[in-house]
Amino acid sequence: MPQVSIIIPCYNAASTILQTLASVAKQSFHDYEIIIVDDASEDSTREAVQSFRIQHPSLSIQTICHEKRRGVSIGRNDAMSVAQGKYLTFLDADDTFDPYFLEKMTDAAEKYTADIVACNAVRYRAGQLESTHIYPDRETTVENRESLIPNSSLQKFFDTCWAKIYRRDFLQKKQIQFLPEMSFAEDTFFANMAALHAEKFVILGKYGGYFYTVGTVSSTSLMQTEKRLKGLTRFLTELSKELRFGEERLLLRKCLEYLWTIKKYGGKERKRLLNEMRESKLWSEMLFPIINKFGKFKHRLILHSLNRNWLWTLRLW
Questions:
Q1: Residues 295 and 159 in one domain
Q2: Which of 182, 314, 219, 307 has the alpha carbon at shortest distance from 258?
Q3: DSSP code of 88?
Q4: For the whole model, what pTM was predicted?
Q5: Comparing C-alpha atoms, which of 300, 297, 275 is closest to residue 288?
Q6: Residue 191 and residue 150 share a domain
Q7: How far apart are CA 89 and CA 58, in angstroms?
Q8: Integer Cα distance of 167 and 146 in angstroms
Q9: pLDDT digits (tens, 9 = 90+) for 166-202
């Protein structure tokens, strides 16, 4: 049984997948398997994967090929169902690992007997370094659910499913999977669910072990506005079911993102989207009460202005 299963979902990733796989082959830690899920790519992704397999016969590589598009959530779930590793990690098809990623992450998991280990990420745009660390530079810490809820800087580490390793038997025991119907924020939901149920997770905030690429063909990018809003609605609805009394603060960041999405991407449909939002149960039962209770003064002020139909105030968000 391999120590780590590396899950790579891809769609039309021929231009990036070889670089991604090369970063895996260069790992200082060698006890792993690679599971690639091709979501009905229409380019030469499969041929690129096959050429890599031929060039690296010693690596354990399994490919799952969808004959029609099924989405990244189903792809990751399919890979999780066949994974054999003690730990799971996710790698997008246009991202890469630091050469010591698996070694550092598994060492921390073993040292602290952690359910999850999260590290920082380095962001690239169009091949250029944009941000050395996209999350706070926290010291190596051992945390749990009680420390996650009130700490917004800690919550940022669970915005994505990648830049982490998860103990596979923990995910199986808690039945944590990706929601197939979610088209946006599906990885945030997965990561938050894992963090909420973990007995122990470790944060390696000073180690930028995951290299994240913005603006390419990643299966998790370029969502349309209404799909983003639908995904955020599903995220808030489903995660709220998992929260204990007094833990609603964990929903604040995605409530704020909902309004920010309308402001940034709404365009000519901004007024319609705002009116639909204000007439929805999501507004009355979640967005308004949570932002009003936990948001900053600026956000609370705009919130009440929107409630009075002063829609122009969203520009100040």
A1: no
A2: 314
A3: E
A4: 0.92
A5: 300
A6: yes
A7: 20
A8: 20
A9: 999 999 999 999 999 887 899 999 999 999 999 999 9
